[in-house]
Amino acid sequence: MACTCSHEPAPQKPNSKFRTALWIALVINLAMFFVELIGGAYAHSSALWADSLDFFGDAVNYGISLAVLGASLYWRATVALLKGLTMALFGFVVIGKSAYAYIQGIPPEAITMGAIGILALIANVVAAVVLYAFRDGDSNMQSVWLCSRNDAIGNVAVILAAVGVFGTGSLLPDIIVAVIMATLGLTGGYQVIKKALQERKDNKPVLTT
């Protein structure tokens, strides 16, 4: 009788500290998604709108990461691959939104934009500090760390853009920041995808008869 046996490495025991860190990051990102979604619409800011979508995507990714903590490296890498593709897709979406905002030509409300940017920065620094210890883990852990790191960098840029908008009355600083955030999404997604593909290749289940 033929049998199908998997010789995949045994699933990793869930890391309780990483699980706790993920829950903290999940709550922070979900809360900031609503704050920036409403604030971005009110302030007519492409950068805040883009950052709100990033917060939502991160919250979903943290939830997925929690779900696969006890899975084998192959399946954790598979989830990381999907997350990397999502990060890259986000980058392309933001570029499209920025082009649309530029055509519309409506400058954002700088005070609201700056205040929400500062709040988002504080939230992301907390999440990044919590997740910092896991930055050199597998592709799944790495993708989680990159999400928080990119968000913190993006928030600094949002604050600088708010200052630029306030000083010039132009929407260009907002557009420039949105493009920077898109670039972070594309480069971060590439890093995660590259590592995840290698881990899937190295840990692919072997079926025997």
From TrEMBL:
<protein>
    <submittedName>
        <fullName>Cation transporter</fullName>
    </submittedName>
</protein>
<dbReference type="InterPro" id="IPR058533">
    <property type="entry name" value="Cation_efflux_TM"/>
</dbReference>
<keyword id="KW-0864">Zinc transport</keyword>
<dbReference type="GO" id="GO:0005886">
    <property type="term" value="C:plasma membrane"/>
</dbReference>
<dbReference type="InterPro" id="IPR027469">
    <property type="entry name" value="Cation_efflux_TMD_sf"/>
</dbReference>
<feature type="transmembrane region" description="Helical">
    <location>
        <begin position="152"/>
        <end position="169"/>
    </location>
</feature>
<keyword id="KW-1133">Transmembrane helix</keyword>
<dbReference type="InterPro" id="IPR050681">
    <property type="entry name" value="CDF/SLC30A"/>
</dbReference>
<feature type="transmembrane region" description="Helical">
    <location>
        <begin position="87"/>
        <end position="104"/>
    </location>
</feature>
<keyword id="KW-0813">Transport</keyword>
<keyword id="KW-0812">Transmembrane</keyword>
<dbReference type="GO" id="GO:0005385">
    <property type="term" value="F:zinc ion transmembrane transporter activity"/>
</dbReference>
<feature type="transmembrane region" description="Helical">
    <location>
        <begin position="110"/>
        <end position="132"/>
    </location>
</feature>
<dbReference type="Pfam" id="PF01545">
    <property type="entry name" value="Cation_efflux"/>
</dbReference>
<feature type="domain" description="Cation efflux protein transmembrane">
    <location>
        <begin position="22"/>
        <end position="198"/>
    </location>
</feature>
<feature type="transmembrane region" description="Helical">
    <location>
        <begin position="21"/>
        <end position="43"/>
    </location>
</feature>
<feature type="transmembrane region" description="Helical">
    <location>
        <begin position="55"/>
        <end position="75"/>
    </location>
</feature>
<keyword id="KW-0862">Zinc</keyword>
<keyword id="KW-0472">Membrane</keyword>
<feature type="transmembrane region" description="Helical">
    <location>
        <begin position="175"/>
        <end position="193"/>
    </location>
</feature>
<keyword id="KW-0406">Ion transport</keyword>
